Amino acid sequence: MYKVIGATKSRALRVMWMLEELGEPYEHIACGPRSDEAKQYNPSGKIPALVDGDDVLTDSVAIMQYLADKHGKLTAPAGTPARARQDAMTFWLIDEMDAILWAAAKHSFVFPEEQRVPEIKDSLKSEFARAAKILSDRLEGPFLMGDSITVPDLLATHCINWSIGAGFPSVDDKLGAWAKSTRERPAFKAATSKEA
After folding, report:
1. pLDDT in tens, 161-191
2. Which pTM was predicted?
3. What is the domain partition of the chain in residue ranges?
4. In sequence order, which ranges of the chain are alpha helices (DSSP H)?
Protein backbone atom coordinates (compact mmCIF):
# COMPACT_ATOMS: atom_id res chain seq x y z
CA MET A 1 0.00 0.00 0.00
CA TYR A 2 1.16 3.51 -0.78
CA LYS A 3 2.00 6.00 1.96
CA VAL A 4 1.43 9.73 1.45
CA ILE A 5 3.45 11.96 3.73
CA GLY A 6 2.21 15.51 4.25
CA ALA A 7 -0.60 17.66 5.56
CA THR A 8 -3.93 17.68 3.76
CA LYS A 9 -3.70 21.48 3.53
CA SER A 10 -0.58 21.26 1.38
CA ARG A 11 0.45 19.93 -2.01
CA ALA A 12 0.04 16.44 -0.48
CA LEU A 13 -3.67 16.85 -1.23
CA ARG A 14 -2.85 16.59 -4.94
CA VAL A 15 -1.33 13.14 -4.41
CA MET A 16 -4.17 11.99 -2.14
CA TRP A 17 -6.74 13.17 -4.68
CA MET A 18 -4.86 11.34 -7.44
CA LEU A 19 -4.90 8.10 -5.45
CA GLU A 20 -8.60 8.53 -4.71
CA GLU A 21 -9.31 9.04 -8.43
CA LEU A 22 -7.30 5.89 -9.20
CA GLY A 23 -9.12 3.91 -6.51
CA GLU A 24 -5.81 2.96 -4.92
CA PRO A 25 -5.59 2.50 -1.13
CA TYR A 26 -3.03 4.51 0.79
CA GLU A 27 -1.95 5.36 4.29
CA HIS A 28 -1.89 9.06 5.06
CA ILE A 29 0.85 10.26 7.41
CA ALA A 30 -0.19 13.81 8.29
CA CYS A 31 2.76 16.06 9.03
CA GLY A 32 3.93 19.53 8.23
CA PRO A 33 6.91 20.65 6.16
CA ARG A 34 10.33 20.50 7.80
CA SER A 35 8.90 18.35 10.62
CA ASP A 36 10.94 15.45 11.97
CA GLU A 37 8.38 13.09 10.42
CA ALA A 38 8.70 14.71 6.98
CA LYS A 39 12.51 14.58 7.17
CA GLN A 40 12.36 10.81 7.64
CA TYR A 41 11.11 10.59 4.04
CA ASN A 42 12.74 13.64 2.47
CA PRO A 43 15.91 15.07 4.07
CA SER A 44 14.90 18.57 2.95
CA GLY A 45 11.67 18.23 4.93
CA LYS A 46 9.58 19.17 1.91
CA ILE A 47 6.19 17.56 1.48
CA PRO A 48 4.63 15.59 -0.01
CA ALA A 49 6.50 12.33 -0.31
CA LEU A 50 5.10 9.07 -1.60
CA VAL A 51 6.34 5.70 -0.40
CA ASP A 52 5.88 2.94 -2.95
CA GLY A 53 7.51 -0.23 -1.64
CA ASP A 54 11.20 0.57 -1.15
CA ASP A 55 11.01 3.77 -3.17
CA VAL A 56 10.39 7.26 -1.81
CA LEU A 57 9.30 9.81 -4.39
CA THR A 58 9.04 13.57 -3.94
CA ASP A 59 7.44 16.55 -5.71
CA SER A 60 3.65 16.48 -5.98
CA VAL A 61 3.47 16.80 -9.77
CA ALA A 62 6.16 14.17 -10.38
CA ILE A 63 4.30 11.83 -8.02
CA MET A 64 0.95 12.43 -9.73
CA GLN A 65 2.37 11.75 -13.17
CA TYR A 66 4.19 8.65 -11.89
CA LEU A 67 0.93 7.28 -10.48
CA ALA A 68 -0.97 8.14 -13.66
CA ASP A 69 1.65 6.36 -15.79
CA LYS A 70 1.91 3.37 -13.46
CA HIS A 71 -1.84 2.79 -13.38
CA GLY A 72 -2.58 3.94 -16.95
CA LYS A 73 -5.28 6.40 -15.91
CA LEU A 74 -5.74 10.19 -15.81
CA THR A 75 -3.09 10.65 -18.48
CA ALA A 76 -2.42 10.40 -22.16
CA PRO A 77 0.06 7.63 -23.06
CA ALA A 78 3.74 8.58 -23.02
CA GLY A 79 5.25 9.20 -26.45
CA THR A 80 2.07 10.53 -28.01
CA PRO A 81 1.21 14.04 -29.23
CA ALA A 82 -1.66 14.06 -26.71
CA ARG A 83 0.85 13.46 -23.92
CA ALA A 84 3.10 16.23 -25.19
CA ARG A 85 0.11 18.61 -25.09
CA GLN A 86 -0.78 17.38 -21.60
CA ASP A 87 2.81 17.85 -20.40
CA ALA A 88 2.86 21.35 -21.91
CA MET A 89 -0.28 22.21 -19.93
CA THR A 90 1.18 20.71 -16.75
CA PHE A 91 4.43 22.66 -17.09
CA TRP A 92 2.53 25.86 -17.92
CA LEU A 93 0.44 25.44 -14.74
CA ILE A 94 3.59 24.92 -12.67
CA ASP A 95 5.23 28.03 -14.13
CA GLU A 96 2.25 30.37 -14.36
CA MET A 97 0.13 29.43 -11.34
CA ASP A 98 1.87 27.18 -8.83
CA ALA A 99 5.14 29.15 -8.85
CA ILE A 100 3.28 32.43 -8.36
CA LEU A 101 1.35 31.06 -5.38
CA TRP A 102 4.54 29.63 -3.88
CA ALA A 103 6.31 32.99 -4.26
CA ALA A 104 3.42 34.67 -2.44
CA ALA A 105 3.59 32.06 0.32
CA LYS A 106 7.32 32.59 0.74
CA HIS A 107 6.78 36.32 1.21
CA SER A 108 3.85 35.72 3.59
CA PHE A 109 5.08 33.08 6.03
CA VAL A 110 7.88 30.86 4.68
CA PHE A 111 10.80 33.30 4.64
CA PRO A 112 12.07 34.80 7.89
CA GLU A 113 10.24 38.07 8.45
CA GLU A 114 13.26 40.23 7.63
CA GLN A 115 13.53 38.61 4.18
CA ARG A 116 9.89 39.06 3.19
CA VAL A 117 8.86 41.70 0.65
CA PRO A 118 5.10 42.08 1.16
CA GLU A 119 4.86 44.62 -1.69
CA ILE A 120 5.60 41.86 -4.21
CA LYS A 121 2.26 40.19 -3.53
CA ASP A 122 0.25 42.74 -5.54
CA SER A 123 2.22 41.98 -8.69
CA LEU A 124 1.93 38.23 -8.02
CA LYS A 125 -1.84 38.55 -7.71
CA SER A 126 -1.93 40.41 -11.01
CA GLU A 127 0.18 37.72 -12.70
CA PHE A 128 -2.06 34.98 -11.32
CA ALA A 129 -5.18 36.77 -12.58
CA ARG A 130 -3.60 37.01 -16.05
CA ALA A 131 -2.79 33.29 -16.04
CA ALA A 132 -6.27 32.39 -14.78
CA LYS A 133 -7.82 34.33 -17.67
CA ILE A 134 -5.62 32.49 -20.17
CA LEU A 135 -6.62 29.16 -18.60
CA SER A 136 -10.29 30.11 -18.73
CA ASP A 137 -9.96 31.01 -22.42
CA ARG A 138 -8.27 27.65 -23.13
CA LEU A 139 -10.95 25.63 -21.33
CA GLU A 140 -13.17 24.18 -24.06
CA GLY A 141 -14.46 20.86 -22.71
CA PRO A 142 -15.46 19.42 -19.40
CA PHE A 143 -11.74 19.01 -18.59
CA LEU A 144 -8.59 20.86 -19.57
CA MET A 145 -7.44 18.19 -22.02
CA GLY A 146 -10.89 17.32 -23.39
CA ASP A 147 -13.43 14.75 -22.29
CA SER A 148 -11.41 12.99 -19.56
CA ILE A 149 -9.90 14.19 -16.31
CA THR A 150 -6.09 14.22 -16.32
CA VAL A 151 -3.22 15.34 -14.10
CA PRO A 152 -3.53 19.02 -15.18
CA ASP A 153 -7.13 19.17 -13.92
CA LEU A 154 -6.06 18.16 -10.43
CA LEU A 155 -3.13 20.58 -10.49
CA ALA A 156 -5.18 23.52 -11.77
CA THR A 157 -8.00 22.95 -9.28
CA HIS A 158 -5.54 22.76 -6.41
CA CYS A 159 -3.93 26.03 -7.53
CA ILE A 160 -7.31 27.75 -7.76
CA ASN A 161 -8.21 26.51 -4.27
CA TRP A 162 -4.84 27.71 -2.98
CA SER A 163 -5.42 31.13 -4.53
CA ILE A 164 -8.72 31.43 -2.66
CA GLY A 165 -7.06 30.59 0.65
CA ALA A 166 -4.26 33.06 -0.10
CA GLY A 167 -6.72 35.91 -0.65
CA PHE A 168 -6.08 36.28 -4.38
CA PRO A 169 -8.81 37.82 -6.57
CA SER A 170 -11.49 35.36 -7.70
CA VAL A 171 -11.14 33.67 -11.06
CA ASP A 172 -13.83 34.40 -13.66
CA ASP A 173 -17.23 32.70 -13.56
CA LYS A 174 -16.36 30.12 -16.23
CA LEU A 175 -13.19 28.93 -14.50
CA GLY A 176 -14.82 29.18 -11.08
CA ALA A 177 -17.72 26.96 -12.16
CA TRP A 178 -15.29 24.46 -13.67
CA ALA A 179 -13.21 24.31 -10.47
CA LYS A 180 -16.39 23.90 -8.43
CA SER A 181 -17.39 20.93 -10.60
CA THR A 182 -14.02 19.23 -10.06
CA ARG A 183 -14.25 19.82 -6.31
CA GLU A 184 -17.60 18.03 -6.35
CA ARG A 185 -15.99 14.79 -7.51
CA PRO A 186 -16.23 12.01 -4.90
CA ALA A 187 -12.46 11.46 -5.04
CA PHE A 188 -11.77 15.12 -4.16
CA LYS A 189 -14.21 14.98 -1.26
CA ALA A 190 -12.64 11.75 0.01
CA ALA A 191 -9.14 13.25 -0.10
CA THR A 192 -10.14 16.48 1.65
CA SER A 193 -11.95 14.59 4.40
CA LYS A 194 -8.68 13.12 5.68
CA GLU A 195 -6.97 14.42 8.80
CA ALA A 196 -5.07 17.66 8.31
Report:
1. 999 999 999 999 999 999 999 999 999 999 9
2. 0.96
3. 2-74+187-192, 81-185
4. 12-22, 36-41, 60-71, 81-93, 99-105, 120-138, 151-165, 173-183, 186-192
